[in-house]
């Protein structure tokens, strides 16, 4: 545990000392909020209003898309934070901790927890934009979603750690991850509902872990108790698998299983790559 905590703490210190990374990480989420929240909100709200029954109330697209932007931040930060493994190899730090009595499993877990914590912190910092955007999420809902943000960050950072253990250059890592990240964002329901898609695309949506993360975050943060089933369908909040609507608990279980599998694969790959 001391080794895990030491590596965890080191990654956190590196993050807070790197001011450019700290502020630069908000560029993409804020850009997406401006483009999708400001530029497309009118068109999306008009389109969604046509698919909702009378008396359902107004559809606030910014309120709908904000949890997706937070999930997108978790995805990008978690995966790209794992790139520090490649940097540690280049600067010789990895060789130093490899000759220490710390097990390689502990090194992999420490890296995963460090990346997930950084991603969660950045996701929480986005909450500061809520009053500026004129949104009104319940404070208890924001608190309740934080543990799940950390869980999703663990799963996604394990994915990044898996790639960083297989790729030896930062350029190759960035190119590979960028090819993976954008489809995971757009096919997750983060920016628009993913219902009524072609079968092959719907399959990708259902195996995408970010889909379940986005759905849980929206169900927790958005007031769905007062929504009808028709409205939830229009907003893409009735996620189904094999024709059965999934509950929040089932989606969390899926993320936990996904996280354990990726942690195992990342640890095995990490041990082989650094044997």
TrEMBL record:
Residue spans crossing the bilayer: 20-44, 64-86, 107-133, 139-163, 175-194, 252-270
Domain ABC transmembrane type-2, first and last residues per copy: 20-273
InterPro entries for the chain: ABC2_TM, ABC2_TM_bact-type, ABC_2_transport, Nod_factor_ABC_transporter
Keyword set, alphabetical order: Cell membrane, Membrane, Transmembrane, Transmembrane helix, Transport
Gene Ontology terms: cellular component: ATP-binding cassette (ABC) transporter complex
Leader sequence residues: none
GO molecular function, one term: ABC-type transporter activity
PROSITE patterns the UniProt entry points to: ABC_TM2
Pfam families recorded: ABC2_membrane
Membrane topology: Multi-pass membrane protein
Subcellular localization: Cell membrane; Membrane
Family per record: Belongs to the ABC-2 integral membrane protein family.
PANTHER family: NODULATION PROTEIN J
Protein name in the entry: Transport permease protein
């Amino acid at each position: 545990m001391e080794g895990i905590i030491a590596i965890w703490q080191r990654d956190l210190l590196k993050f807070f000392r790197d001011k450019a990374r700290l502020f630069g990480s908000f560029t993409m989420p804020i850009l997406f909020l401006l483009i999708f929240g400001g530029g497309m909100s009118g068109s999306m709200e008009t389109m969604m209003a046509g698919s909702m029954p009378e008396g359902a109330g107004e559809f606030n697209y910014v309120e709908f898309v904000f949890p997706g932007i937070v999930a997108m931040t978790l995805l990008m930060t978690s995966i790209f934070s794992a790139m520090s493994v490649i940097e540690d190899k280049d600067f010789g730090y990895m060789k130093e901790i490899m000759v220490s009595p710390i097990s390689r499993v502990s090194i992999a877990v420490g890296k995963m927890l460090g990346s997930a914590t950084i991603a969660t912190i950045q996701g929480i910092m986005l909450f500061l934009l809520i009053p500026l955007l004129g949104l009104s999420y319940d404070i208890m809902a924001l608190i309740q979603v934080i543990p799940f943000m950390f869980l999703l960050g663990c799963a996604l950072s394990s994915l990044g750690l898996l790639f960083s253990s297989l790729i030896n250059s930062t350029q190759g890592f960035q190119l590979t991850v960028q090819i993976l990240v954008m489809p995971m964002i757009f096919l997750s329901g983060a920016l628009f509902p993913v219902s009524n898609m072609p079968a092959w695309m719907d399959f990708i949506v259902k195996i995408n872990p970010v889909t379940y993360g986005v759905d849980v975050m929206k169900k927790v943060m958005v007031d769905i108790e007062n929504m009808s089933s028709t409205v939830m369908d229009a907003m893409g909040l009735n996620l189904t698998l094999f024709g059965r609507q999934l509950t929040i608990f089932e989606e969390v279980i899926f993320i936990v299983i996904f996280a354990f599998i990726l942690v195992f694969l990342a640890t095995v790959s990490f041990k082989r790559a650094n044997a």
